[in-house]
Amino acid sequence: MGLGKLEKRVGFIGAGQMAEALARGFISKGVVKASDMIATDPVKARRDVFESFSVKPVISNAEVVKEADIIFLAVKPQFVAPVLKEVRQHLTEKHTIVSIAAGKTLASLKEAAGEDTKLVRVMPNTPCLVGETASAMCLGGKASDEDAEEVRTLFSSVGRIVQVDEKLLSAVTGLSGSGPAYVFLMIEALADGGVRAGLPRDISMALAAQTVLGSAKMVLETGKHPGQLKDMVTSPGGTTIAGYHELEKSGVRSGIINAVLAATNRADEISRL
């Protein structure tokens, strides 16, 4: 099902892998045409990548701001404030700044960009690279519900996005920002278990990864609680409940909860630096 075309020009300051994934997703879902996008990056090879799928590459940050309506800040966190201060004089009421830089608060963005700038802070995660991001956004400055809807349209083309208060973005970081690492660990462990039980490594890894993918899809598409879905698999006295018992004895559930909380706390610390 189509998401609808966004009648805005989109620019990228920073043309790394995340920016590339976003741009390709926008194009593939028909949300923004390649001819309506522009990108800059200090590394020529990255500009060349964008040019290879028909996005206009430019040298200067100011040129992106002059040509685009929605501007993605896809640079390392330490460069966000300098970039915004550099282009501040070119920002007008038509512009919406979307920052995907970790740890940069709306207050710091406003200080660098100016009081009247429309600001949206987004926390995506790495599955954006395969069109399956879990993202959260919060609004700042002069950003309106209309701006939020435009950002929602864009990010829905590369996964899912929710809107939260900024105070919850550290929790988002701890859960979906860091979460892929926890899932990769689980996939690796499942595959190792299969190898220990006698399966060839390649077959075990494929089965483990597909099992996680399919299970996640069941949660999202059935709307059933994971506990209900778990109960559908665990027959009385069967194999699954035997394995599940071992997970509970090992404290896997508590370990995952604690991992999310530890990452959340660290995200809070980083945002205060």
UniProtKB/TrEMBL annotation:
- What InterPro entries does this protein's entry cite? 6-PGluconate_DH-like_C_sf, NAD(P)-bd_dom_sf, P5C_Rdtase_cat_N, P5CR_dimer, Pyrroline-COOH_reductase
Q: Which SUPFAM superfamilies match?
A: 6-phosphogluconate dehydrogenase C-terminal domain-like, NAD(P)-binding Rossmann-fold domains
Instruction: Cite the Gene3D superfamilies for this sequence.
Output: NAD(P)-binding Rossmann-like Domain (3.40.50.720), ProC C-terminal domain-like (1.10.3730.10)
- Residues in domain Pyrroline-5-carboxylate reductase catalytic N-terminal? 9-103
User: Which ranges carry the Pyrroline-5-carboxylate reductase dimerisation domain?
Assistant: 166-269
Q: Show the Pfam families listed in the entry.
A: F420_oxidored, P5CR_dimer
Alphabetical UniProt keywords: NADP, Oxidoreductase
Family the UniProt entry places it in? Belongs to the pyrroline-5-carboxylate reductase family.
Mind telling me what this protein is named?
G10125 protein
> Which species does this protein come from?
Coccomyxa viridis
